[in-house]
Design a protein that fits this description.
This protein is an alpha+beta fold. About 30% of the residues lie in helices and about 25% in strands. It has helices at about 15-40, 45-65, 65-75, 155-165, 180-200, 205-215, 255-265, 310-320, and strands spanning about 80-90, 95-105, 115-120, 135-140, 150, 225-230, 235, 240-245, 275-280, 285-290, 325-335, 340-345, 350-355, 360-370. The termini are far apart.
Amino acid sequence: MTTTTHTPPATHNTPVACARGFLTGGVVGASLAALVVGTVVENAPLFVAGLVVPTVYGLLLFLAGMPRRAREAAVVHRTALARIESLEAVRGESSDVPVRFELTVVPDDGPAFRVGTTQDINLVDLPDYRPRGVVVVEYPPDRPWRVRIVKRPTPPWEKRAASAHLEPVSATTTVAAPPEGCAFGFAVLLGLLLGAAAVVLLFRADLFGRDDSAQPPPSVPSASSSTSSTASSTTVVTSASGTVTLGAGQSFLDKGELGRAVDTLTKGGDARQALTVVVGERLLSVVFAPTGAPQTPAFDPRALPYDRFPALVDEAATALGAGSPQTWQITAERLTGSLVIRVVVTGPGGTASLEADGRGDVVRRAGTAR
């Protein structure tokens, strides 16, 4: 028998493959970043987009590949005899066991070659497959690495397999699927990084605006912010957020303190809308809605029932069994469409919380004991 060495297949470094890899990496990177950023900034549409975009992209890839799969299915497969060089069961959790075969395929009209394949074999039929045994296989002529063992061959082929004696060939004739190549992997990685970076850059104002609102006020105001200080409080206002910090011995539960602080941040008669208002013992933070975005779920921070806040904290601390609160925080937002005021208090007895509507009426309570 004359043995012919097969030339190793070329890698998939075509421009189309690299472009598809870049696009796939971009979609994956942007989707993951959208899920993370949407969670951090509490942007529900962005989070949903992170779930929907890869699903739609996968559907489009499936539809785009249908003509190619139809062409591949229309190709007439070649039938040949093959010698089992080795076999190994991968795992055996069910009656059909995945078995890794190493085969020497001997076509009638071409050189013999070696190929590896994995195929599910029923446990009952497994003794029929043994090293040096001969089986009937099928494979596409242009993709011989997709060889499959024919479990129920036709009588002529079954007779040939029973009487055939095949010799092994060198491992240098092994055929395998073309590797993707370094260029394809680089395109995927580049798309992944650029997709994630694009989402972060688009929402950098929300990300860093939320972070800045929780930081201490800067000592030197920038050109786009204003800072004012008195003996008892410090106020910082930027285009994205505003904070008021009270001095020692003061509390935002003191009568009229919250109203004066909110008037300071909204400049009295300014009708700036807010995305979130967070009130602590001595820190008030307001994240303002971007200008020119009418669909943003914002609200007027001056319309909150601030006179009800002390009673809500007391109710969360006493009625929910948290005892005398050590810390408390009030958050107002309307991400779900209606204004929600959440109160969380922590004390020796544990943590308690409640939710109220825009009028300050309690709609839900919860408590967790230590």
